[in-house]
Design goal:
Chain A has 600 residues and is mainly α. Chain A has 23 helices and 5 strands. Chain A has helices spanning 41-44, 57-72, 94-105, 120-126, 136-149, 179-195, 221-230, 243-256, 263-272, 277-300, 308-320, 337-349, 382-389, 393-403, 413-431, 443-467, 483-504, 506-512, 515-518, 521-524, 536-554, 567-576, 580-599, and strands spanning 83-88, 107-111, 165-170, 200-205, 234-237. Chain B: It is found in: Nucleus.
């Protein structure tokens, strides 16, 4: 009986999306089990009122207070005072808070929705018919401009008169790809903050830069946030939801959906979603499918006409007493957070069969000296754990490096020395992996770098296992994310800011060059051949340059040492910088500027 | 369904790669990862597919699962209710916004509990910008359209997308699972083989079903007979048995014998890269004392690194053997 699919219009205003659940919500349509009800649990169990929110009460209060204060005082005209910025990791209820509070306070959201673009091909083929290609950024700029210039939205204090207060909501910031676009976006946002004359809420998802995702740089997000804050916007940061809240919620949902999942199973999901409620709910829905079937089967004696049936039965049963911890590789958990910690725990805790004798070689020829003998490992082969966990090996090495000291006895300096020797070796092996884009590397390179990575992973894991002969007394220990990443991030931030500052000061530099210097610059562009006749200034410059380079390395603040603009120094710093192509363009342009000056 | 398809177009199928010819058309026929497959089967029966990310190494059945799932869910509506985009299609930001949005807005008559499906194969090769654009679309149209993404590394998918999906992990197939399927193919294709030959195919595949079937077909069409020698000749890999002998001699401390084995391999014309790769895989699976294994892996890793740098000489490989024997002497009581 085919019927029209539920083509409910995509919740018109775009604001019908509710995501987070609520506590204690009696779910109205309890059509479960038959699977015919096609709704995502994330939506089905979305919160209906503010009290349903799982977000920390203080944060909700902050947002509410901000909104109320703006509502009461429409004449609020501090620069940037009309803009609220909400950030936080994905799935913690940012949009849900905005949506629920809006409902309660009687706000009407006016949302920036990215228009469906004209594709480039269409533009090329039908350019004359009015299908124009415009970049999203330009469209966004036009939108913001019109929002600033034409206050079509009634401002403030209309709540009493029965009309809803309109609020501008921006969730989908346009994507930017390079420095120029980032600047454009920042400029747009700056103007928005400065001159918008009604309440505006910007929701931005923070992408954590750790984990495997750290190599995927999202341009402009950080810069956009900084711009908004600098311009005076209020920023409220949402934290990940606590495992306990998530667990409570999941238990409730599981009960309303009539799935029989054990409590341990649910807490496993709750703990491993990394505070991401939305993902926890999706996982729950997926994990529950097998269980739901079982209850259905009991009722309707559901028939599976194939041999897989027995496997499925096994699986369902195993799922319900999951606490036995039989499965070493859980199929849920966002990204690889869980699998990573799982593997790390095994390597760091170094469980061995201490009751069994020290291992002896199968070869009777080889009798190991005492020092090299170990109790057999109480776990699977390390390589198997690694491959099941699907960890990226640099991540593994970084985590082991960060945390291993906590797991070795205070006195065991020799062990630590060994461990770090092995980790160091692993690092060398990893350094051979081509980092970043593998587009240029051939198939052969990929397979060979794969082997190197495998070897590195094995060395790191096995090294930690083998060398840790004096484990620290067992106690509860949390696993920290590598500080290495913070350092790397800081480094790249510094580099970026230095580069952009130099770029910004470039044009005035060329113009302000002393005339006697300017004629010589082209010959001096290569750092290898410094002209001898420049004595004092050059020394000065050299020392400054040296300072800068040292500072880049030691991560100290560059602000003080970055002096009054100077072309020479610029070139030197840029020369060490990561992007040489950029450097060359830069120099050529500089020369042009200088030659123009001469002509004048 | 699978069998009828195969039967009706037998003549046409003659030249098909076996990978395609024997690609399962039903979720139930998928090899390995029983947990996952069982759940998918439930979804295939009951509908209401959540947004899913399939992640796992190549050749473990991700694409096959997605396609089979979509077929079972949508049946005759497959053509109009599925939008498939893989890495070879244009998937930039605009395409995601335009094509996927248009598809999501399209009205298709479907039974209750069924949704249109957008299949994004090799989603980890999508730019982060395109993934960002996907984020909102996924949410707004979730009552009519669901997404299934396949990727090798789930970490290459941006967090907001991960947050909106349930992640399904595929692990490498076990040797017995691969062997099982190979036996069925061998039977259907009437391939002449010896058991050792199939074992060799399984070894070369290393948990990758696609590779296993390709190697099997290549061996069969090249030699009409699957035995160990033919397999390794086709796959152009040094015979792991020889490598095993080398390692065995190293563990026993017989550098002379080990060197003889190495020389034999080298004289067969294998490149140093091939030899070191095989050595690595053999060492990884060789039963030996923990310390030896750790040191062996490390030394092989370093040798591999040097060879990858271009020093692929017999001298390097001999040096490796010497180091392995030295390690063994070092830890001897």
């Amino acid at each position: 009986m085919p019927q029209v699919s539920k083509s409910r219009p995509p919740s018109g205003s775009g604001r019908g999306r509710k995501r987070k659940l609520l506590e204690g919500e009696p779910v109205v349509d309890a059509e479960v089990g038959d699977g015919g009800q096609g709704e995502l649990w994330v939506e089905k169990h979305a919160p209906k009122t503010v009290s349903d929110l799982v977000v920390h009460g203080k944060k909700v209060g902050d947002v509410r207070r901000w909104l109320e204060s703006r509502l009461q005082d429409p004449g609020w005209r501090l620069p940037g005072g009309q803009l609220l910025l909400l950030t936080g990791p994905p799935g913690v209820g940012k949009s849900a808070v905005v949506c629920m509070l809006g409902k309660e306070l009687g706000l009407e959201y006016f949302e920036w929705k990215t228009p469906t673009p004209t594709q480039w091909q269409e533009h090329v083929h039908h350019g004359f018919t009015g299908h124009r290609y415009t970049s999203k950024l330009d469209e966004f700029e036009a939108f913001v401009d019109s929002a600033r210039k034409f206050p079509v939205l009634p401002v403030g204090s209309c709540g009493s008169s029965g009309r809803k207060v309109k609020v501008l909501l921006i969730e989908d910031l346009p994507h930017v790809n390079d420095a120029a676009q980032t600047q454009q976006l920042c400029r747009i946002l700056h103007e928005l903050v400065r001159s918008v004359c009604f309440i505006t809420v910007v929701v931005m998802t923070d992408v954590s830069e750790d984990g495997g995702g750290r190599n995927m740089r999202l341009w402009g997000l950080r810069e956009a946030q900084q711009t908004l804050e600098a311009a005076g916007a209020t920023k409220i940061v949402f934290n990940p939801v606590t495992p306990n809240s998530i667990k409570r919620l999941l238990t409730k949902i599981a009960a309303t959906e009539k799935c029989r999942l054990s409590g341990d199973y649910i807490s496993a999901i709750a703990e491993n979603c990394g505070g991401d409620l939305r993902h926890a709910m999706s996982s729950l829905q997926f994990q529950c499918t097998g269980h739901k079937l079982r209850s259905t089967k009991e009722k309707e004696s559901f028939e599976f006409g194939n041999a897989r049936k027995s496997a499925l039965d096994d699986n369902v049963i195993r799922g319900s007493d999951f606490e036995a911890g039989t499965s070493s590789s859980p199929t849920y958990g966002r990204d690889n957070i869980f699998s990573l910690y799982h593997a790390l725990g095994k390597f760091l805790h170094n469980k061995r069969h201490t009751d069994q004798p020290l291992e002896a070689s199968q070869e009777s020829l080889l009798i190991l000296s005492e020092h090299y003998r170990r109790h057999p490992l109480n776990m699977e082969v390390p390589e198997r754990i690694l491959s099941e966990a699907q960890i990226e090996f640099p991540t593994l090495a970084a985590f082991l490096h960060e945390n291993v000291l906590d797991f070795v006895d205070e006195e065991a300096v020799d062990d630590v020395a060994d461990i770090f020797t092995y980790l160091g070796d692993a690092d060398i092996l990893l350094s051979r992996r081509p980092r970043g884009s593998s587009s240029s590397s051939s198939l052969n390179d990929i397979s060979s770098s794969h082997i190197a990575a495998l070897a590195a992973g094995s060395v790191a894991a096995r090294g930690v296992l083998f060398a840790n002969t004096h484990p620290a007394p067992r106690k509860w220990q949390s696993v920290r994310a590598p500080t290495l990443w913070q350092v790397e991030r800081l480094l790249s931030e510094k580099k970026d800011s230095t580069m952009s500052r130099l770029q910004a000061t470039r044009v005035p530099v060329g113009a302000a060059l002393p005339s006697q210097l300017s004629s010589e610059v082209p010959s001096r562009c290569t750092p290898d051949s410094p002209p001898e006749e420049e004595d004092e200034p050059m020394d000065d410059i050299r020392s400054l340059t040296a300072d800068c380079i040292v500072d880049l390395d030691t991560l100290e603040d560059l602000d003080d040492d970055l002096p009054h603009s100077n072309t020479q120094e610029q070139m030197h710093v840029l020369d060490r910088g990561p992007s040489n192509g950029f450097l060359e363009d830069d120099m050529e342009e500089d020369e042009d500027v200088i030659e123009d000056d001469d002509d004048d | 369904m699978a069998t009828t398809v195969a039967a009706t177009s037998l003549a046409k199928d003659y030249d098909l790669p076996w990978v395609e010819k024997y690609r399962p058309h039903k979720v139930a026929d998928i090899v390995g990862n029983q947990d996952v497959v069982a759940r998918l089967q439930v979804i295939a029966q009951g509908g209401n597919m959540p947004n899913l990310i399939f992640s796992g190494p190549p050749g473990t059945g991700k694409t096959t699962s997605i396609l089979a799932l979509a077929h079972e869910l949508l049946g005759p509506n497959f053509k109009e209710a599925v939008l498939e985009l893989n890495a070879s299609d244009d998937r930039g930001i605009d395409v995601v916004r335009n094509k996927i949005k248009m598809f999501a807005q399209k009205k298709v008559t479907l039974p209750p509990g069924r949704h249109k499906v957008v299949l994004l194969d090799e989603a980890d090769s999508m730019t982060s910008g395109a993934q960002q654009a996907l984020r909102r679309t996924m949410e707004i149209y979730s009552n009519t359209t669901r997404f299934a993404l396949a990727c090798n590394l789930s970490s290459k998918i941006i967090e907001p997308i991960q947050s909106r999906c349930a992640i399904v992990r595929f692990s490498r197939l076990s040797d017995s699972e691969i062997l099982d399927r190979l036996l069925r193919v061998v039977e259907a294709e009437k391939v002449a083989y010896v058991p050792e030959g199939l074992e060799a195919v399984v070894f070369t595949a290393d948990g990758d079903m696609r590779q296993a079937l390709n190697n099997l077909q290549a061996t069969f069409s090249g030699f009409q007979f699957v035995n160990q020698d033919n397999v390794f000749r086709v796959c152009d890999q040094p015979h792991p048995l020889l490598a095993q002998h080398i390692i065995k001699h190293c563990v026993a401390g017989n550098i002379d014998d080990a060197y003889v084995g190495l020389k034999q391999l080298y004289d067969l014309g294998y490149s140093a890269t091939d030899i070191i790769t095989t050595l690595f895989r053999v060492v990884k699976n060789y039963e030996m004392v923990e310390f030896l294994k750790l040191e062996f892996i490390r030394e092989v890793g370093f040798a591999h690194m040097r060879i990858a740098d271009g020093v692929g000489t017999l001298l390097q490989l001999s040096g490796l053997l010497a180091k392995l024997c030295k390690v063994r002497e070092k830890c001897k009581a």
